[in-house]
Every structure is written in C-alpha cells, then in structure tokens.
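Researcher: I'd like a structural prediction for the single chain below. Treat it as a standalone chain; there are no partners to consider.
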Amino acid sequence: MPRSFIADVALTHPDFPLGPTLKAIPTASITEESIRPATTADEPAVLYRVTDVDFRTFESALEHDDTVSEWA
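Model: Treating it as a single chain, here is the predicted structure.
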C-alpha cells in the first residue's frame, strides 16, 4: 500500500528569498505565484502574493532586504 506524508518544514538559509522581510514581518503570509525562468539574467524572476500585512510596512521591509533586487 502506498504511503503519503504531510510535513510542515521550516527552511533557513542566509540567501533565502524574502528571508529578511519575513523575519521583519512574521505575520505576513507569502505565497509563490509563479517563476519566470532565467533568460538574459543570471536568476529567475519569482512572483509572490503577500497578504496579512500593511503594504507600507511590507514595502519598507523590502527596501532593507538584500535578497530582493527589484520589486514593483
């Protein structure tokens, strides 16, 4: 009989995308929406949906997050 597992995993890494933002705003819920493969850049573009946070607070945290190269 096949087995299934459900796991709640916490990952940490110094360069984890949005890691500093999540640390600064632990109540924010961030969901990965899509990934655009790298073409001319060295890294892919990852699009996220953010909820449960004041947008100005989130923008301020992004300004200090060295894992984010640009955002709109």
